[in-house]
Each structure stands twice: as structure tokens, then as C-alpha cells.
């Protein structure tokens, strides 16, 4: 398991949001507004669908990374934090009765 997390990516996006648009893809995307960011996310999602449909393993890994990055940029553009989404997932997990399983230590 990589040590890199979505929380790390969120922190990088927050940091780069303040950079000049000429120096940062993130800042340039955010400067174009949430609708642009959402469209970009949609394009990347379609590319991930194509890779999944074709059964292209490395392609799907790469497109998934693009999807996650662009989703976090959309959240940033709309003022949503990773914590808010994780809280929603935790709420659903608790509701479905799987919370105990999720907190169990993983077998190594
Ligand atoms: N994870 C990513 C990441 N994934 C994809 N991309 C960019 O997303 C773009 C998507 O590719 P496309 O070919 O569809 O885009 P494009 O045609 O070049 O761009 P558009 O004009 O269509 O937006 C590429 O230009 C990639 O550079 C990313 N850009 C940045 N990050 C992360 O953000 C950090 C900060 O980057 P900067 O903001 O550039 O400093 C990086 O260190 C990474 O951690």
C-alpha cells in the first residue's frame, strides 16, 4: 500500500491553488471556475470508463489517478473537503451495519 493518500493530494491541491496560474495546472484549472473543473472531471471519468471497458489494467490505473485528482479539484472549486465526503461514507457504513468490520485490524 502506497503511503500517499487522498489527504496528501487534497493538501497539495490547496497549496497549489494559491500559486500563479502560469506555474500550476491546478491553479489554472481553478481560475477557469467550477464548471470547467467539472467538465474536466467528466472527461477523465469517460476515459476511465473506456479503459475499464477495454480491460486495460495500466490504462485504468492511470485514468483512475486522473479521475481522483480532477474530483478533488472539483471539490476544491465547490468548497467541499475530503472529510465531508469521508463522513458521508462513514454514515452510510454505520447505517448498513458494516462499521465494526471496517474498524477491524487488517490481516497482514
Ligand atoms: N495529480 C495531478 C494530475 N493528474 C492530472 N493532471 C493534469 O491534468 C491534465 C489532464 O490531461 P489532459 O491531456 O486531459 O489535459 P490538457 O489537455 O493538458 O489540459 P486541459 O487544457 O484540457 O485542461 C494534464 O495536463 C495533467 O498535468 C494533474 N496535475 C496535477 N496533479 C497533482 O497536482 C500537483 C500540483 O500540480 P500543479 O498544480 O501543476 O503544480 C502535482 O504535483 C500532482 O500531485
From TrEMBL:
It comes from Phreatobacter oligotrophus. Keywords: Amino-acid biosynthesis, ATP-binding, Cytoplasm, Histidine biosynthesis, Hydrolase, Nucleotide-binding. The keyword Flavoprotein does not apply. Pathway: Amino-acid biosynthesis; L-histidine biosynthesis; L-histidine from 5-phospho-alpha-D-ribose 1-diphosphate: step 2/9. CDD domains: NTP-PPase_HisIE_like. It is found in: Cytoplasm. Its EC number is 3.6.1.31. The gene is hisE. This is Phosphoribosyl-ATP pyrophosphatase. GO terms for molecular function: ATP binding; phosphoribosyl-ATP diphosphatase activity. It comes from the Bacteria. The keyword Hydrolase applies. InterPro entries: HisE, PRib-ATP_PPHydrolase-like.
Amino acid at each position: 500500500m502506497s503511503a500517499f493518500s487522498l489527504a496528501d493530494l487534497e493538501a497539495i491541491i490547496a497549496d497549489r491553488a494559491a500559486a500563479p496560474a502560469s506555474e500550476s495546472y491546478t491553479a489554472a484549472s481553478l481560475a477557469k471556475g467550477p464548471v470547467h473543473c467539472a467538465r474536466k472531471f467528466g472527461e477523465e471519468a469517460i476515459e476511465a470508463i473506456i479503459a475499464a471497458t477495454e480491460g486495460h489494467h495500466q490504462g485504468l490505473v492511470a485514468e483512475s489517478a486522473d479521475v481522483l485528482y480532477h474530483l478533488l479539484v472539483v471539490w476544491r472549486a465547490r468548497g467541499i473537503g475530503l472529510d465531508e465526503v469521508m463522513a458521508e461514507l462513514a454514515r452510510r457504513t454505520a447505517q448498513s451495519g458494516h462499521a465494526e468490520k471496517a474498524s477491524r485490524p487488517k490481516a497482514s
